[in-house]
Amino acid sequence: MSLKPPKKSDAKKGWMKRRRDKAIRIQPEYHLIVTEGINTEPQYFQAIRDIINRQYSGRIQLDIFGEGDNTLSLFEKAKLRAAQNPNGYRHVWIVYDTDDFPPDHINRTSELCLRESCEDTQYHAAWSNQCIELWYLLHFSYFQSDVHRSEYWPKLTSRLTEIGAGRYEKGRPDMYRVLLPFMETAIANAKRLNTANKGKTPANAAPGTQVYQLIELLRPYLAEA
């Protein structure tokens, strides 16, 4: 094929004009978030969804369901919802607390997420040992004491009171907004815990949380104009 430039006399001919490709519509990336709780976790993630919808509705979409179920049952419900969605989900997040559930159930849910993941859909076990309040507390400081989940609530109240944000209550709807200024600290502290728990099962990784993985993935879409 000749590498010579086209003649001036040919430049205006139709067959020499550059083809204008039609714009390709990029489908949004779909995320499914199913949570064990029906209030605390859904309200936190719905605040995130609202921010994303205002600015990036065509690029990423979050579907959130508070199932009121736990571990293995929660995974099965998430898998069923994923199968029923005609758009398909790129990421499916199973958000659950370890609480006092049997260790084999806690660990099995994480194992199922790994087993069911494929090129098209990734399943994530976004567990917290013992509860999502650990993720909240990590916004203020690194915390590595293995205490009962009920002890997180007065600690959160103390921290929130210090910044003038009142008491902590389960299902408080403004937690994402309140904690937002400290997000970088929370991610760093959760990663530090994750390193300390390396090699441990979710049931034995106390305290520990994987919620930061979801937040870190969505973080590029959370900078409000």
Task: Give a short synopsis of this structure.
The protein has helices spanning 40-56, 71-84, 103-116, 133-137, 152-162, 175-179, 183-196, 211-218; strands spanning 29-35, 60-66, 91-97, 122-129, 208-209. The chain is of the alpha/beta class and 225 residues long.
Describe the model.
This protein has 225 residues and is an alpha/beta fold. The chain has one domain (27-221). Helix content is 39%, strand content 14%. The chain has helices at 40-56, 71-84, 103-116, 133-137, 152-162, 175-179, 183-196, 211-218, and strands at 29-35, 60-66, 91-97, 122-129, 208-209. The protein has a 5-stranded mixed sheet, with helices on both faces. Helix 3 (103-116) links the parallel strand 3 and strand 4. The longest helix has 17 residues, at 40-56. The protein is globular, with a radius of gyration of 23 Å.
Q: Tell me the number of helical segments per DSSP (H or I, 4 or more residues long).
A: 8
Strand count: 5
State the share of residues found in helices, binned by percent.
Answer: 25-40%
User: Beta-strand percentage?
Assistant: 5-15%
Count of structural domains: 1
Structural class: alpha/beta
How are the strands of the biggest sheet laid out side by side?
A: 2-1-3-4-5
* H-E string: EHEHEHEHHHHEH
User: If you compute it from the alpha carbons, what radius of gyration comes out, rounded to the nearest whole angstrom?
Assistant: 23 Å
For the termini, the CA-CA separation is 51 Å
Question: Overall pLDDT, averaged?
Answer: 89
Q: Which regions have little confidence, pLDDT < 50, spanning 5+ residues?
A: 1-6, 13-26
- The shape is globular
Largest sheet: 5 strands, mixed
